[in-house]
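Service request form, structural biology core

Requester: graduate student, group of Dr. S.
Request type: structure prediction, single chain
Budget code: on file
Notes: please return the result as structure tokens.

Sequence provided:
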Amino acid sequence: MIGNDWDEKLKIIWESEGFKKFYHLIEKEYQNETIYPPKDHIFEALKLTSYQDTRVVIVGQDPYHGEGEAHGLSFSVQKGVKVPPSLQNIYKELYDDLGIPPRSDGDLTSWAKNGVLLLNAVLTVKKDTPASHRKLGWERLTNYIIKLLNEKEEPVVFILWGNFAKEKKALITNPKHLVITSSHPSPFSAYYGFFGSKPFSRTNEFLKQNGLKEIDWH
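Core staff response, request fulfilled:
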């Protein structure tokens, strides 16, 4: 399904009757409703960032629910789409933290190709209906993905923004890893701990201390 080492890592999920039944439900949703992201982008985060290459995980809630926005990466939108407020705030913090100026678009594919797994906890959403696919079954898969990453011998940075993402902290028990938490970058909460949290420099400092390649956040 994915085309890299995630296929083997997640084989037990893909072949389970429970997942097959759930995915059949998702396919029916695509037939009957307008669902985002496009079906061939549901697993884009896994396709772009293999298990082996994952050095950082940024956990999002569910995909953007507006037309043409979501493309399978948390917080990212396709080129040509207006940069959402949360991502504008992420760019602002990136500039304040590392001096990297905001890019003109909201496509974070380059981060994904550089070892940042941009994982939404829920991988699909109904048009204009946020959280509409929450608790349908995606969480079993994405929680399992986080548990697999927790088992990695190589240190990983988990970036958890907002209360929803922070719920995943309980799955990260390996002391080798770094967990960075703060409020969500949305305009409603960014001033309550997100701004000034310096997640990008803290991530790179941790990777450097562990002899790992730093992330190019440009």
